[in-house]
Design the sequence.
C-alpha cells in the first residue's frame, strides 16, 4: 500500500522516471520473510531512501514514513513526529508538552502509539529515514523502547548513513533483524548500464562503461552524476577533456556539499589529510591527531565517510575509493588551510618512515609540493637507500625531486653524485660539485667538507685521473669524522682499487684492511659492503699469486 505518509521522491536525480527498479534488493527486504527490523545503512548517495520508497510502492502493508531532520534530535520534536506518524490525538487535552514533561512522561506517548498499533489489524511498517541525525540520549532511548515493544504485526525499516544507535542484539539473535549495507546497495555493472540508459539518451560504449563502473565502484550518485555529464556533453568522449571536466565538477560539488562540509572540523581536516595515503590504520590516525586511541577515531571516520572501505580487514586497514580520493585531491586546496594540511602530511610521513615504508613517505612528500616537507622526508629516504647501496632506487627518487629542492639541501647533492657514480653516469657531476662545493666547505661541518673531497676524488677515479683521485681521497679521509663509516668505506675502496691498478699488492692489502674495518662497523642490514669488498679481496690475493684464496673469495 502506498499511503499519503510516504513522501514523493522529488530531486532532479531521483524522479521516478530516472530510477532503476532495484527489484533484487526490494525482494531482499521481504525474502524469505520480512524481519521485524530492517536496517539500511550506507553513506550519502547510495540510494537508501529510494530503495525503501520502491519497496513501499509495492508492499501490501500499511506504510508509515518518518523523515528526520537535524532539528528532530530533540526529545520534544522527536516524540511529536512519532505521535503524528501514529496519527494519535494530542495528549493532555491538546496542550503540547514541554521538554521536561516529555522526558518525565516519555512512556505515555509511547504507550499510546503502541496501543494504537495494536488496535490496527492490518500489517504495518514504520520507515524511519535519516536515523543518523539522532544523538540525544532521550531520543535514542525512546526509539529503542518503541522497537522493543513492537507488536508482532508491526515492522520497522531504519535508514541512516552510519551504524544506528539502537540495541538490536536480542532481535538479531532471534533472526528478526535484516541488514542492508553499502556493499548490497552498490550497483552491478549491468545495473549501472541500465541506470545510465534511463538517465541519458546518449549511448555508452563498453570501454566507457568499464571505466565509469571502476571509477564509481557502484556508487549510484556517482553513476547518475556521470550520466548527467554524458547528457550535457553528448558530442564528446566520456573521458575526453570537456566531458571529464563536467564529470569532475558534478562529483566534486556533490562530495563537498553532502560529505565533506557536514563533517566536524577535526574530522574534515583528517579526511583531507588522508587524501594521498594508500591506506589508513588506527596507528596512523592516532599519530596525525596526537591521540592515544586511534581505533576510536578510525571507527568514527568509517561511520562518517562511506568511501573509506576495508583494505585489509585483518590489519584494520582502510583506503579511499578511487573516485573519492581523486575528488579530494581536486578539492583539498579549496577547503583546507595549507599550513594545517602540511603539518598533517608531515606527521603521516614520519609515521610511514617509522614503519620503514620509504616509498609511501616519499610519494606523500612529493605530492605535498612543500619544499621543507620534501627535504625532511628525503633526508631519511636517501640515507636509507644509500646506506644499503641501493643506488638504483636512490637515483629513481632523486630524479623525481625538484632540482631547486635537491640543490637547496647539503645532503641531497651528495647522494645524487654517489648514485650517479655508482651507476656509471658521470655527466653533469662536475657541474653540481662546482655549485655546491663552496657551501660544503663553508658549512663548518667536517662531514660536508670531507664529502666535498670524496666526490672530487671519486669523480677523478671514474675519469682515470689516478693522481688527482688519490690526493682527493686521502684528503677526504683526513677530514671525514671517524663515525662516517659509509663515506670512509667509499674512499678506502677507491684507494684500494687504485693500488690494484698499479700492482701495489701490499698497499692494496693495507687499504683493504681499513675498508674491512669500516664495513664491520656498519649495522647488520647494511652489510652489503662485504659483497663489494669480496672481489677486491680476491684481486689482492691474485696480485700476490695466491690463486686458491682468490677463488675462495670470488666463490
Sequence:
Amino acid at each position: 500500500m502506498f499511503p499519503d505518509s510516504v513522501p514523493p521522491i522529488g530531486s532532479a536525480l531521483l524522479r521516478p522516471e530516472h530510477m532503476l527498479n532495484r527489484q533484487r534488493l526490494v525482494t531482499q527486504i521481504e525474502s524469505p520473510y520480512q524481519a521485524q527490523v530492517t536496517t539500511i545503512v550506507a553513506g550519502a548517495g547510495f540510494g537508501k531512501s529510494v530503495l525503501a520508497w520502491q519497496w513501499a510502492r509495492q508492499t501490501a502493508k500499511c506504510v508509515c514514513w518518518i523523515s528526520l531532520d537535524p532539528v528532530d534530535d530533540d526529545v520534544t520534536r522527536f516524540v511529536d513526529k512519532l505521535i503524528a506518524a501514529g496519527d494519535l490525538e494530542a495528549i493532555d487535552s491538546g496542550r503540547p508538552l514541554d521538554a521536561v514533561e516529555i522526558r518525565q512522561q516519555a512512556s505515555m506517548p509511547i504507550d499510546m502509539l503502541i496501543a494504537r498499533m495494536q488496535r490496527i489489524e492490518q500489517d504495518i511498517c514504520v520507515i524511519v529515514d535519516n536515523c543518523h541525525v539522532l544523538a540525544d540520549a532521550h531520543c535514542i532511548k525512546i526509539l529503542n523502547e518503541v522497537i522493543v515493544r513492537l507488536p508482532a504485526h508491526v515492522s520497522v525499516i531504519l535508514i541512516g548513513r552510519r551504524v544506528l544507535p539502537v540495541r538490536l542484539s536480542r532481535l538479531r539473535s532471534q533472526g528478526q533483524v535484516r541488514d542492508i549495507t553499502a556493499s548490497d546497495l552498490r550497483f552491478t555493472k549491468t545495473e549501472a548500464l541500465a541506470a545510465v540508459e534511463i538517465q541519458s539518451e546518449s549511448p555508452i560504449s563498453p570501454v566507457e562503461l568499464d571505466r565509469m563502473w571502476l571509477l564509481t565502484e557502484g556508487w549510484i550518485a556517482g553513476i547518475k552524476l556521470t550520466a548527467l555529464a554524458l547528457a550535457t556533453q553528448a558530442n564528446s568522449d566520456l573521458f575526453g577533456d570537456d566531458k571529464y571536466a563536467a564529470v569532475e565538477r558534478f562529483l566534486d560539488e556533490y562530495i563537498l556539499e553532502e560529505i565533506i562540509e557536514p563533517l566536524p572540523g577535526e574530522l574534515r581536516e583528517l579526511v583531507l589529510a588522508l587524501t594521498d595515503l594508500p591506506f589508513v590504520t588506527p596507528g596512523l590516525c592516532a599519530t596525525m591527531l596526537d591521540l592515544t586511541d586511534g581505533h576510536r577515531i578510525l571507527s568514527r571516520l568509517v561511520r562518517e565517510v562511506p568511501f573509506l572501505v576495508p583494505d585489509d580487514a585483518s590489519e584494520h586497514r582502510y583506503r579511499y575509493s578511487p573516485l573519492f580520493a581523486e575528488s579530494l585531491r581536486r578539492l583539498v586546496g579549496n577547503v583546507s588551510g595549507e599550513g594545517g594540511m602540511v603539518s598533517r602530511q608531515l606527521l603521516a610521513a614520519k609515521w610511514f618512515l617509522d614503519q620503514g615504508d620509504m616509498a609511501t613517505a616519499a610519494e606523500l612528500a612529493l605530492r605535498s609540493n612543500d619544499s621543507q616537507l620534501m627535504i625532511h622526508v628525503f633526508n631519511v629516504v636517501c640515507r636509507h637507500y644509500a646506506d644499503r647501496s641501493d643506488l638504483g632506487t636512490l637515483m629513481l627518487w632523486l630524479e623525481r625531486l625538484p632540482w631547486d629542492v635537491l640543490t637547496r639541501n647539503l645532503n641531497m647533492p651528495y647522494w645524487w653524485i654517489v648514485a650517479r657514480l655508482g651507476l656509471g653516469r658521470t655527466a653533469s657531476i662536475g657541474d653540481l660539485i662546482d655549485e655546491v662545493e663552496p657551501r660544503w666547505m663553508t658549512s663548518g661541518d667536517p662531514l660536508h667538507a670531507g664529502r666535498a673531497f670524496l666526490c672530487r676524488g671519486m669523480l677523478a677515479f671514474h675519469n682515470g685521473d689516478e693522481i688527482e683521485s688519490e690526493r682527493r681521497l686521502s684528503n677526504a679521509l683526513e677530514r671525514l669524522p671517524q663515525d662516517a663509516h659509509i663515506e670512509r668505506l667509499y674512499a678506502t675502496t677507491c684507494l684500494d682499487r687504485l693500488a690494484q691498478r698499479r700492482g701495489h699488492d701490499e698497499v692494496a692489502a693495507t687499504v683493504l684492511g681499513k675498508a674491512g674495518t669500516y664495513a664491520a662497523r656498519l649495522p647488520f642490514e647494511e652489510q652489503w659492503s662485504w659483497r663489494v669488498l669480496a672481489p677486491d679481496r680476491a684481486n689482492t690475493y691474485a696480485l700476490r699469486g695466491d690463486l686458491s684464496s682468490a677463488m675462495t673469495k670470488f666463490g
Summary: Residues 241-260 form the longest helix (20 residues). The longest strand covers residues 154-160. The two ends are 85 Å apart (CA to CA). The chain has 29 helices and seven strands.
